[in-house]
Amino acid sequence: MGETWVLMKTAQTPTNIAVIKYWGKRDESLILPVNDSISVTLDPAHLCTTTTVAVSPVFQQDRMWLNGKEISLSGGRFQSCLREIRRRASEVEDKEKGVKIEKKDWEKLHVHIASYNNFPTAAGLASSAAGFACLVFALAKLMNVKEDESQLSAIARQGSGSACRSLFGGFVKWIMGKEEDGSDSVAVQLVDEKHWDDLFIVIAVVSSRQKETSSTSGMRESVETSLLLQHRAKEVVPKRILKMEEAIKNHSFESFAQLTCADSNQFHAVCLDTCPPIFYMNDTSHRIISYVEKWNRSEGSPVAYTFDAGPNAVLIARNRKAAAQLLQRLLFYFPPKSDIDLDSYVIGDKSILQDAGLEGLKDVEALSPPPEIKENAAAQKYPGEVSYFICTRPGRGPVLLTNENLALLNPETGLPK
Fold first, then answer.
1. Do β-strands 99-101 and 48-56 pair in parallel, antiparallel, or remain unpaired?
2. What is the rounded distance in angstroms from the CA atom of residue 347 to the CA atom of residue 216?
3. pTM value?
4. Contact present, 68 and 32 (Cβ < 8 Å)
5. How would you classify the pairing of strands 25-27 and 187-191?
6. Is there a contact between 282 and 207 (Cβ–Cβ < 8 Å)?
């Protein structure tokens, strides 16, 4: 076989947002959680990781580039994923290139990996979840791994816990498992993205800066010091999981919203109960909660809110009509700064702007205060507190991209384009 060939695969994987949160590990190295969790996968058109993986006898070592910058692969989590995938590799044959890779060859061959997130990394938008899921999915395709998505999820889990939930679309449950080796700690799809396709999601990106306390160290401190975490994992989450599965199955939005908001608030209460306390939300996050709570009380829960380990609000609306009304409220309270146009302030699925009757900044300025605000209360506005909004919806799981133009590595050299 010619010694200069390069074989490549490119995959695209969505991110996910937990509605019943994962917070706390019972095993740090295998990343085994203290409770089950449930998430919704977001439409990869708006939030995803694209990863190209390549193999060639020319490569001297495993290398990776994230968003154009080379990063080290020496970390334990990368090494776990690479080791587990290589162990499961099968024979690969590319007749066109006259290349045949035997199962045993994979141990000696090096890979190049290029990954790109179309959203801020480490800002509390689960970029590591999409990233590790994409890495594992793409490598599994390159190395002809026969395992199904659930089995692959156990490998992705060893990169980033929530990554296991990004191997499916729709609503996904990460089963905590009981085995010490983690073999039964896997993700399963509860329903696909078409099951509840009325839902619409608006994300308020309050800050795209890296967070002060990483999820990894935050979780460790919570497990060590928070009594509320122990109570939550043992008493609260198991019941919530059952109720949440029921709400999803029956499209029961009121119950879904109540559970989602309560679980988000309890997760952040655990962070406060940690010693020293961890603050992921900020004043803007708290204002958003307060506005949504007021509206939900006056109108029977049109919207659920949830916050991961960061200040960004993920708002899940019952349907498009509720989403349009939500966007009107958000833009009333958090208009863009005067030098920002609406087109770059609301990104993703912009069709919801038309539903909300918002074509430009003039329409935003003309918005009247939401009816749930009492007449005498001053309706204060906070321009500049939200960086931008992303409009999206539940989406599909990982896919291979066959269009070579979308690959991030050069097919001749295996280096970044």
1. unpaired
2. 30
3. 0.95
4. no
5. unpaired
6. yes
Q: C-alpha distances in angstroms, 165 versus 217, 260, 340? A: 21, 17, 35
Local confidence pLDDT in tens for the 417 residues of the chain: 457 899 999 999 999 999 999 999 999 999 999 999 999 999 999 999 999 999 999 999 999 999 999 999 999 999 999 999 999 999 999 999 999 999 999 999 999 999 999 876 545 566 788 999 999 999 999 999 999 999 999 999 999 999 999 999 999 999 999 999 999 999 999 999 999 999 999 999 997 667 778 889 999 999 999 999 999 999 999 999 999 999 999 999 999 999 999 999 999 999 999 999 999 999 999 999 999 999 999 999 999 999 999 999 999 999 999 999 999 999 999 999 988 999 999 999 999 999 999 999 999 999 999 999 876 566 899 999 999 999 999 999 999 999 999 999 999 999 999
SS3 per residue for the chain: CCCCCCEEEEEEEECEEEEECCCCEEECCCCEECCCEEEEEECCCCCEEEEEEEEECCCCCCEEEECCEEECCCCHHHHHHHHHHHHCCCCEEECCCCEEECHHHHHCCEEEEEEEECCCCCCCCCHHHHHHHHHHHHHHHHCCCCCCHHHHHHHHCCCCHHHHHHHCCCEEEECCCCCCCCCCCCEEEEECCCCCCCCEEEEEECCCCCCCCCHHHHHHHHHHHCHHHHHHHHHHHHHHHHHHHHHHHCCCHHHHHHHHHHHHHHHHHHHHCCCCCCCCCCHHHHHHHHHHHHHHHHHCCCEEEECCCCCCEEEEECCHHHHHHHHHHHHHHCCCCCCCCHHHHEEECCHHHHHCCCCCHHHHHCCCCCCCCCCCCCCCCCCCCCCEEEEECECCCCEECCCHHHCCECCCCCCEC
Q: CA-to-CA distance for 250 and 256, rounded, in angstroms?
A: 10
In angstroms, the CA 119 to CA 387 distance is 13
The tokens of 402 are what?
């066959």
Q: What angle do CA 225, 236, 280 make, to 5 degrees?
A: 50
CATH numbers and ranges of domains, the chain: 7-193+402-406 (3.30.230.10), 200-392 (3.30.70.890)
The Cβ of residue 102 has, within 10 Å, a number of other Cβ atoms equal to: 11
CB 122 within 8 A of CB 130: no
